């Protein structure tokens, strides 16, 4: 596989827009387990903001799925990973647990649950799947199905050291606050490339959530604000 996109630090790419206090906010009930269950039982009519990134690789298209694991604590949080630096794609990036859909997987949901178990040791019996978001096509030619789920606390994670450098949680209210959504843009090979970032300060350490992960979270925000 080759990529046309040169190595770069996404933090240095100019921010062209940032959300404001005037942008819509999700209703408070959607930050509860029951509110999220009801949302997926009776979803509103809505349109995802982001569906496909400009392609920058000759990789053959592949199907994948990721889990949006929403941990049901006093304040619901999203479980995220930081990928190790040695991986062939998206190395070192903040990511949702997930990966390729294998031939043995029944569907995208099964693949996301399997990958979450293999990647971070999240047991399926702690996971309550709510539903899926529209597919998101990455610049690396993965067609990704995001699977939204509630996670019951009390689990003990076992991250795969070959794939996962760290696992952490971010409050869902932070991620769904449009004031934390920054849109970046730059020109490459005559094409404008844009993406979102949602930097989060975790005990003095910045978690730079960007690219496909931020794009799928932006779509989740659009769903929540349509309810």
Question: Judging from the principal axes of the Cα atoms, what is the shape?
Answer: globular
Average of pLDDT: 92
Low-confidence stretches: none
| Total DSSP E strands | 13
Would you state the CATH class?
Alpha Beta
**Proportion of residues in β-strands:** 25-35%
* The CATH H-level homologous superfamily: Nucleoside Triphosphate Pyrophosphohydrolase
SSE class: alpha+beta
Number of domains: 1
Instruction: Write down the Rg.
Output: 17 Å
**How many angstroms separate the termini?**
41 Å
CATH architecture, please? Alpha-Beta Complex
Largest sheet: 8 strands, mixed
How much helical structure, as a percent, in the residues? 10-25%
Instruction: Give the SSE string.
Output: EHEEEEHEEEEHEEEEH
Summarize the structure in words.
The chain has 227 residues and is of the alpha+beta class. It has one domain: Nucleoside Triphosphate Pyrophosphohydrolase, CATH 3.90.79. Helix content is 19%, strand content 32%. It has helices at 33-41, 108-120, 172-175, 211-226; strands spanning 15-18, 62-71, 77-83, 94-95, 98-100, 127-132, 136-137, 142-151, 164-171, 182-188, 191-197, 200-202, 205-207. The strands form three sheets. Strands 2, 3, 4, 5, 6, 7, 8 and 9 form an eight-stranded mixed β-sheet that branches. It has a three-stranded antiparallel β-sheet with strand order 1-10-11. Strands 12-13 form a two-stranded antiparallel ribbon. A hairpin with a 5-residue loop joins β2 and β3 (77-83). The longest helix has 16 residues, at 211-226. It is globular.
